[in-house]
Each structure stands twice: as structure tokens, then as C-alpha cells.
Amino acid sequence: QVQLVESGGGLVQAGGALRPSCAASGRTFRTYVMGWFRQAPGKEREFVAAINWNGGNTDYADSVKGRFTISRDNVKNTMYLQMNSLKPEDTAVYYCAADSRVAVSRAANAYRYWGQGTQVTVSS
Q1: 103 close to 67: Cβ distance less than 8 angstroms
Q2: What torsion, rounded to 10 degrees, do the Cα atoms 98, 95, 23, 84 define?
Q3: What is the 3-state secondary structure (H, E, C) of 49-117?
Q4: Any idea what the Cα angle at residue 22 is, between residues 115 and 47, rounded to 5°?
Q5: What element of type H or E holds 46?
Q6: CB of 56 within 8 A of CB of 72?
């Protein structure tokens, strides 16, 4: 089992940048596929990005492609989401997720483990 803790959210103006991180417990972090999802008020949780165990395979939602970069450090047991050129529509609670059973996936139900979320607010 793995526990996930997000941090690094905050308030930023449109066009700005943030870099949330997701710290994982456990010695098997490197075996987990990791993902970022987000949920805005009144909307369903949606896929943002995912990364395989060594970073060699990544996937992004079309809405963030070219602006966001997912990465991981298997020594530090931490995953990151570099978010550039932020837009007001990026405002949401951002969640990290993990699972060892799947390949990179856009489906929320593919991931067993979830963090508590970090708020990202982009002002116009």
C-alpha cells in the first residue's frame, strides 16, 4: 500500500506557473504508475496527466498538452506537475493517484491510491 500527500498548490495569476508535488510513502514507489487528476466545483474529476514507472511513457489531456509537464523522482519518491501558462479554467483541486497494476491510464477507476488534493486557483 502507498500513501500520497500533495503540496505546492496555491493562487496564481493567469499566465503564471505552479509546480505541485506528490510525495509517496513506501519502498515500492518506483513500481507504481502515477497520475494527476483535477476536479473543479460542480464538475466531475478529470484526467490531467500520467507517467509510467521510469518516466519513459507519459500522457496528457488535450487541455493541458504543451503547458503542463509530469515528472517523477524515484529516489525522492516524489512526482511533480510543472504547470505553465495557467488559465482560469485550470482552477481545481488537483489529486495525485497511483497504482501498480496498470499501464499509464486516463481512467480514474484504474488507480487504487489517492492523495487528499491540493487547491490550485488561477485568477484572471
Answers
A1: no
A2: 120
A3: EEECCCCCCEEECCCCCCCEEEEEECCCCEEEEEECCCCHHHCEEEEEEEECCCCCCCCHHHCCEECCC
A4: 65
A5: strand 46-51
A6: no
What pLDDT was estimated at residue 98?
96
User: What CA–CA distance (Å, rounded) separates 83 from 47?
Assistant: 15
Low-confidence ranges of the chain (pLDDT < 70): none
C-alpha cell at 16: 503564471
* Torsion of Cα atoms, 90 then 95 then 96 then 97, to 10°: -120
pLDDT of residue 58: 97
The residue behind cell 510525495 is 23
